[in-house]
Structure formats: structure tokens, C-alpha cells
What we know:
A: mainly beta, four-stranded antiparallel sheet, 0% helix, B: mainly beta
Amino acid sequence: xxxxxxxxxxxxxxxxxxQPYPPNLQQQWELRVPEGFQIRLTFTHxxxxxxxGCYYDSLTVLHKEKLLGKFCGTENSAxxxxxxxxxxxxxxxxxxxxxxxxxxxxxxxQNLGFSAQYQAIDVDECSAPEPLDGSGPLCSQICLNxxxxxxxxxxxxxxxxxDQRTCVLSCGGGIFDExxxxxxxxxxxxIPPHAVSCQYIISVEPGFTVxxxxxxxxxxxxxxxxxxxxxxHHWLLVTIPDREPIKLCGGSSPGLMETNSSTVKxxxxxxxxxxxxxxxxxxxxxxxxxPVPGRVANGRVTPVLTEYFYRDYLHVRCDQGYKLMMEGxxxxxxxxxxxxxxxxxxxxxxxHIIDCGEPEPLLNGAVTVLSGFQNQYRxxxxxxxxxxFYSPLGGVNVxxxxxxxxxxxxxxxxxxxxxxxxxxGQPTKLISGYQR
Amino acid sequence: IIGGSNAPHKTIPWQVMLSVGSGRxxxxxxxxxxxxxxxxxxVANGATVPPEDVRIYMxxxxxxxxKDTPVNASSLYIHPGYxxxxxxxxxxxxxxxxxxxxxxxxxxxxxxxxxxxxxxYDTGVMGLVSGFGITINRxxxxxxxxxxxxxxxxxxxxxxxxxxxxxxxxRSDVPNLTENMFCAGVPEGSKDSCQGDSGSAFTLRxxxxxxxxxxxxxxxxxxxxxxxxxYTRVSNYLPWINNTIQxx
Lengths: 436, 248
């Protein structure tokens, strides 16, 4: 990116130009453009006292210590050294101009000095020849020239090292957190460079388990011993939490491997010898399974599925006339969820039959149980008045049933208990007399 | 009660005995917190007696036993039309007493029905009047300790009025008979209600039920030939009774 403090172009002129320059001058200009650019200097006019070797007056152009030209004369003068129409290109992003004049100027010809324009020219670093110091090319694989700079890039399967210059074979490792994916060893199925050390971590959300499915083309160098194959120099180490790591090698694919874990670490190692072609696998995830719930007496568990997995919900509803009870407490509603540990986060509740409580006592009357038990759902009671001194309002004894809403309710949907009205004017004993 | 009989226990379960100051009166239970009586029982010297001066007894036919279980009145309601400063005007002789606690009814205490709306009392129909008032024992007036009753016919209003007119020829201080009163008794005398029975019920029976047709109010002497007892006509006061009870 061009430095905003350094101009991309500009103009340089001798003092008093286009008037003749004064004698006894020693003036210099240091031109600077942004890093990664060269300076191209083009003279639009140069008229400096001509002399062999530009002995009296001269304009010297330098890059650092390197002399790029010393100019004087006019375009057609026999003496001097005029740049003509050829621009001067600096090797770097700086350029020094030194204008010198002596104390004597010819009277018959007034020299006007010079006028020049400069501009920044992008350097194509990529086309520069390889340094001779043996450090190798600027980029080990692909060089991309940019304005003022360059970038190195690598071919597919390689990645740029931290020196931003050289490329190394890519492990393709890292953390894989998608629900499914494909992994393979560097260069697979080709034989990669030696001394590979790659780590792959499959880590998905808890509540999911990972299964690895190795492709048939599996080849990790092994050593054949009396005890069988051992993974001495090359191996793929499969590490599952809370289990012994599994070291894989040989020519047979492990096939499908159920890890029952949400995290798996794969470490692929080869030493600086050998010819392992590597491995590839597809991984998938599936939700953790929870046990099928039992039945709830006098209630319903929904939804009814053949299998239940992580994040599945269960609802329990009681049949009419029953209430949800959990740890001795009544609850209004119940649901439980299959959690990442493969368990239901709450155990199932129970459904207990509801009761309406003691029926309201009846003033000057009583209540008797006709059917049912402990005032439970569907129990039936009958109110009656203390006859013959009281009689029920309406004249008949009323029965109440314990309803599902825990209310005692009559057959006429009445909730309040009946009233006993006093019986008037009917003594239990009448005055009797038989004498006439 | 003159010329009556002792009432067996539980035969007149609505009967109430009142003790107001040193006097005795009667009343009848009409609801679990309400007693109906005569206004003049609760008015002394032109003023309503305080409720705490009224002792109420019920549930037995023997005064000695009755006295063991007094009931208290919380408020008294005299009919607003009762104005009797000279004790010569018994018009609107009706009052209600509200009890401070409700009564639970049983065979010994039971309410008396009120007459039906617009009820009339036919002449000659036998009613029953009871009370703990004066009776005649061996020719002398005595205050009884036993609840007594006597059955008396309803007397034609004209007949009763004529009887009173006759008496006025010799006595000047005879109260007037109004349409809010009716008479009961027999012309030959010897059967009547008397002092101490005031406020008690004169009942009629219809469809097996007794109802309060009248309230013992006044009369010229007791049981005298040619005179009748005068009773407050309850059927004329149904609106006042209902309103008083509902409003209180």
C-alpha cells in the first residue's frame, strides 16, 4: 500500500526556472516514493552550461551511492551530456538530484537550468532474479506481484509457512465441529513427504456422538513381529475421552468406528522414512439416545416413539380425575428432556386420583357418602336435612358428585351446598282429646 | 288462658314466654332468629323497653324448667303504627324481636307458619290460643306455671263490634275494634285468653299446618259472658314482617 506521506509523482526544477539559474549553486533534492516502487525521472527540459565532463555546471542523479548520470548541455550541443528523451529509472524508491553551478556563466547564452517530472513505477519483485546468496527464490512456489509489493502463495495441498515465503505440505488438520465431514492424511492417496505430524480434532456439541468411517484404501506402515503388527514408526492415534487411545496402522481399513463420544482426537505421525500412503475417513454424528420411558399409571406419556434422542421432549398428562404428583408435591404440568448424558433430565411423575375434600357441612342437616372413597373423584355424597324440623329447599335431598375440577357438583351443575329450611307449624305431637 | 287445658310438652313448640320487667307475656317463634309478639308487651310508659330487659324462654311447657334456658334479644321492632299512650288504642299491636343467636329447631322448639298472602279467617273456625297467662283455679284468677291452651272460634267482626258497643254503655274506656283486629271466643264466656297471654299466638290450622292467624292483644275482662278476646290480625302485617326481617 503506497505510503500516503510519499508522493506518487512530482516535479523538480532548477532555481528560478524558466529564468536562468544563478551562479554558485549547490542544491540537492531527495526524491522518495513509497516502498515497493521505483522512480522514473523524465526531463522535460535541460539547459545547463555545456562542458566536457560537465565540469562547470551539472545535474548529478544518484541512487544511494550509485551514480545514474551527470548531465549538462542542451539537446543538440556538441559538448556536455544531455539525457535526451530517455527517462532515468532508479533501482529503488529514492533518487538524489544534485545541481551545481560555478561562479561564471557565459554572457552570450543564458542557460535556463532544468525541469523534470518523476513518478512512482511499481516494482515487479516476482520477476527479479533469484539471489545469489543461496537463500532460494523469493517465493518457493507462487509469486504474485502487487502494487508496491508482492505475495507468496502455495499450490493446492500446501500451506504458507510463517515466513510468508516458503510452502509446506498441508495437514488439513484443526478442529472439525460440523455434524459431518471428510478428513484425510496429507497428500492422500499419494505418498506424502516424510516426518508428518498432523492433528485432527473432531469436536461436536455434547449430546451428539461421532462415528468414523475409514475408507478401504488405508495404508500406514507397520512392522510385522511375532506378536503381530505393531505401529512402530508410523501410526494414526485415535483418542476418545475416558478411554484407552487406539493406535492404528497396517493395510486394513478399520472400517466403521463408533466412538460414543462427542470429541475424538486423531494424531497422524510418520517418521523421516517409510512409504505410508495414508488414510481418509468420513465422519458422521448422531444424537445421544435416551431410554424408552416407562408407563405412567392413569396417565399418558407423549409422544410415543420407538427411540428417543438428545433434545427429544416427553410430556405426561394424567387421565381425567387424576393429578400430576412429583416427590410428594402436586405439579401443574410436566415435561422432561433427553439431555446430552443420555438421560431424561427429570424422572417421570405419578398420577394420583384427585379428591374434592370434605363436602361443605350443611347447617341443620348432614352429608352422607353414597359411593366412593375418601372424597375421591366420582365419589357421590347426599345432603339431607334434619327432618322433620328442616326440609331441603326444593323438597328433595340433593346428591353431589366429585368432579374432575375438584368441585362437588350436583346433577344440575350446582356447586354450592343446599339449604335446609325450617319446617313451620307442624308439631311432632298434636293435642288430642277424645272426650266430647 | 281461661277454661283451657294444660298443653302437653311439644304440642305448641312455637310458644315463647316473655318476662319484661315484672310482667309476663307471650310470643311465637316464626324464624330461627325472630319472635313475633304484641307491641304492648314491649312498650312500657309509652317507650320501647331496652332489649336487655326482655328475657325470652321457649322449649318447655313448664315455667320452672323454661326459666333455665333464657334466650336474649338483640333488637326489638315495634310496628310504627302502634301509638297507645292511654292504653286505649291497640291498633297495630304487633312487634318483632330479633334474637342474638339463631335457634336450632327440634320437637320442643319449632316455628309457626305465617298466614298465606291475603288469608281471611272465617267466622266460626276454631283456633287455638295458648299462653302462660292468668287462669282460673278454684274460682280465683291465678298465674299459672303450666302452658295452657284453649280452642276458640273466630267471631264475626260485626258481632264483636256490637259486643263492645254494649259494653261502652256502661264503660267509657273501651278501645276501638279496627280492621287490623279480629275477635275470638264464645258468647257464654268462660273460655278466653287473659293477662300474661299477650303476644301469644292464636293459630288456625290448614292442610295440617298451624299458622299465626292472630296475636293475643286485648279484651274486656277475661272469659266474661258476652265478651270476646281481641287479636291482632297477622295477615294484615305480612309486608311489614317480611320487610323487617329482610332489612335486619
